Amino acid sequence: MGKNEKTSLGRALVKHHNQMVQQIKEKGRYYRKQENKVLESVTEVTDIDAIIEKAEEAERLYTHDNPTPKFLINLDTNAENNEMMTPEELREQQLKEEKIHAGSLQVPRRPPWYPGMEVDQLDFNEKQAFLIWRRKLASLEENEKLVLTPFEKNLDIWRQLWRVLERSDLLVMVVDARDPLFYRCPDLEAYAREIDEHKETMLLVNKADLLPLAVRGKWAKYFQDNGILYLFWSAKAATAAVEGKPLIGFEQENTSNSDTKIYGGEELLARLQAEAEAIAATRKKSTMKKSTISKGADQAAKHVVVGFVGYPNVGKSSTINALVGEKRTGVTSTPGKTKHFQTLIISEELMLCDCPGLVFPSFTSSRYEMIASGVLPIDRMTQHREAIQVVANRVPRHLIEKVYNITLPKPRVYEPQTRPPLASELLRAYCSSRGYVGSSGLPDETKASRIILKDYLDGKLPHFELPPGFEADADKETDVGPSSSLTDDDSDLSDDEDSPAVEGDLEHALKDLDSYEKENGLAAKKAGKQVRKKTATASYKQHRKPMRKKDRSWRVGNDEGDGMPVVRVIQKPANLGPIKA
């Protein structure tokens, strides 16, 4: 063997050793990065981080034996049939499809595991189960008859929910009192029963101070008829009571009816502890008890655990701060403030567990309704008029005018007189009264929409939903009661305006026709024709140079248009005379 010749065996061993060392280092860097990673909620389908993460997971999990499935393109679309259907028929068709696919709309389940399982195997199983769950929802999104709302796509956020569910004896689902069914997730209650048959789920109806007593009674009857455990609660009022600052406009009813009672902080803690202890006692007495994997025997013997879950920005952290009596968890109006679940020991018998807010998948709402409900961040919205239209459809016209001290445009003659105000009308009226103008000279609708949406969430604009099967007439009178004087004045004005039926309608119709011609440029064409006729009759002025007249038609008043200035361009006639050498 010569001097320059080397054995291939030794080089192969050294190369293999270096590769193993490099893999161990990369693995250590990966786990350190995961520990320092800040959890962020991902709800948008077009988020680039979610797309990259999905591609990486597909590349890592799939091998040659399990190739990526090929999605078939369905060329047989029913677009023409949908165009011929009315909105009511489309809604009925959508409800039928939702009932058919209701079983596929579930919360992701954690795969089975045991304490001695390796970390890599557990991580692999969780990611694969989560990817399968994502594929099921992707198949629902491809169905044109269904509209799937944005949902949480970050696996780490769902892991926080799994931990809280396994630790808790009593699961408290915090919902908004103005629309409790929107924030309720029935499949989460079923999942808690799958983990432990003795677990109970309680609805904590927060912001109950924004509901009239009669509406609270109807919701209480609905919950009792459907076997739902519930309590009425106001985190804002409880926080104000702890700080010694009475909440303006909130008065505790002296009612002996515990069904509609708004609980205080100490009363709520006692009720939660009693419910959790009853569940723990039932679990011990049961002959077919199943010990929860994530709990130790010592922890179960020391105290009971109450877990708080729900949508973002419904008041979970505010509730815990009010119960503890001091600020222990971060609170903000932006959804997604809580990143990791937190445990707070109240006493030797009770421990609270706060879970980050999750956006559960559902069929019942659109993306704009989720923005108006505070589930999705208001400051990140790009289409503000659609979200404002949700507010305008829910809040009566006279209440908007009274709260903001503005006057909204009346419906036109050919429109239904009871229609809600348009989002453009509400935003322009609000910007005009507050002086919100953008850099282009147009109304700053983005700023106005954010303020209106936040007022809507804080309860400045009163609204609420009734339980299914209950009429809204009596409750509307209760809600409109404080502003009855304003309503009477408005009704008198409307009667006076409608008295000259023929002349008033004709004037409004002519005004609408003029504004339509100005918006579409028809007025400019008519003006041009008149100028041409005038120049044709005055032949003795043809030798003069035609003067360019200033067009001041862009100075249009409030003609209920779209707010854009009307631009007129008059082209100077070309000189067609002989060219001088």
Overall number of strands: 7
Poorly predicted regions are: 70-77, 289-301, 474-504, 529-541
Looking at how many chains there are and whether they match, the oligomeric state comes to: single chain
How many helices does DSSP assign?
22
| Strand coverage percent | 5-15%
Global outline: globular
Largest sheet: 7 strands, mixed
Rg, rounded, reads 32 Å
Subcellular location: Cytoplasm
GO cellular component, one term: cytosol
Domain CP-type G: 158-361
GO molecular function: GTP binding; GTPase activity
Question: What features would you describe in this structure?
Answer:
By secondary structure, the protein is α/β, with parallel strands linked by helices. 48% of the residues lie in helices and 6% in strands. Strands 4-3-2-1-5-7-6 form a seven-stranded mixed β-sheet, with helices on both faces. Residues 70-77, 289-301, 474-504 and 529-541 have low confidence and may be disordered. Strand 6 and strand 7 form a beta hairpin. One of its GO terms (cellular component) is cytosol. Residues 526-552 have a biased composition (Basic residues). Residues 487-500 have a biased composition (Acidic residues). It holds the Pfam family MMR_HSR1.
